[in-house]
Amino acid sequence: MTARTCGFCPFSANNISDISTAAFYGLAHLEHLDLSNNNIVDFNPLVFEIFSISSFDPTLELLSMNVSSNRLDSLDDASVMWLNDTATVTDPAGNPWKCKFTALGEAWREMRHLHQVLRQV
Questions:
Q1: Alpha carbon distance 78, 11 (integer Å)
Q2: What is the mean pLDDT of residues 58-67?
Q3: Spatial contact of 108 and 75, defined as CB atoms under 8 Å apart
């Protein structure tokens, strides 16, 4: 299996701190992305833009993404919009979140709840 056709890409525990906006272009069959246990501090929605529902290529369907145990502490408006525009189940656990009772925090709490519910199914 090559990186271009992998359905599951395990990038866990690789000391990743930054992801290029073109990092996942060409991975047409990527369905599960594990970025857990790294040092990612920013969730840049442009990196994952090719997997949004509005993407021009319907074959690009990221089903799950694990970003647990990184250094994420907040989400910007663009990230929240991406999360609302994708069917991807995201695991946000184990990050030092600083989200208060804002729309941003509420959106992330909803994503966490959805992930927990789907994990039980």
A1: 24
A2: 76
A3: yes
Q: CA angle, 5 as apex, 16 and 25 as ends, to 5°?
A: 55
CA-nearest of 12, 92, 11, 20 to 49 is 20
Which domains does the chain carry? 8-120 (3.80.10.10)
Whole-model pTM: value is 0.73
Confidence at 81, pLDDT banded by 50, 70, 90: confident
